[in-house]
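Course assignment 3, question 2. Fill in each field.
Student: A.L.
Task: Predict the tertiary structure for the chain below.
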Amino acid sequence: IAAPGVNVLSTSTAIMIEVVSNGISLPCVPLENGPVASTVANIVNCRLGNDVCDASGKICLIERGVTTFAEKVMNCQENGGVGVIIYNNEIGDVLGTLSNTATTIPSVGVTQAVGITLITYIGRSVIKLTTDISNPALTYGTLDGTSMASPHIAGLTAKLWGHFSECSNVQIRNVLIKTALSIGEGCNRYSGYGLAQVKDAYDLLQAEGCNVGTVDTSDNAIGGCGQLGDDIECGTFFNDCTDNSDCCTNKCL
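Answer field:
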């Protein structure tokens, strides 16, 4: 079964850029494979980072695009820069990598909005920049993925089971599956039986009891799209399925 996992407001650890003059902190993400380092300096607008800019002793503020992250950082470093902040050219975070390029200055990515904010501090305040994640700040942010959806399912399952503690874990699972809202073409490997509907599951258990969650295959713990004993047509999930494949009848990988 599935749960919301896109653009979910969550607590998350974050590295912060500090505007020293007023103590404002702005979130950033260290570029992968960059060094752990810190610096305090003025910032300079190096635009796309593909031309020479007056970077000596300064933090280069660079827009994403045209050249690679590694090329942007190296260009700043070779021109005397002491740090790099790359801001996005569209909505969203910059999650970049330096690959195998060895650099010595801290480099991070920020959103387009943070980049625009930093431009207003050019010549007005020094910036403290670090890529040390050993003691990150705790903040809130929107995140995507199974790391958001899985706790959602775990939490609602625990809440439901707390109301019907006499049921087995398998029965609770099966009732959630039976009452899920299909968001694909039947059960599939992307969203399972569908979006969890915990109130519907509660109502079904309240009306019919734990046995409504008992099916012939429960003891086998088949899981996936075979959990309720459905016949899964060969080839539904993998084009190379055969009659003897594990992804066929009553099973789903």
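Instructor remarks: Residues 146-226 form one domain. The radius of gyration is 26 Å.
Grade: pending
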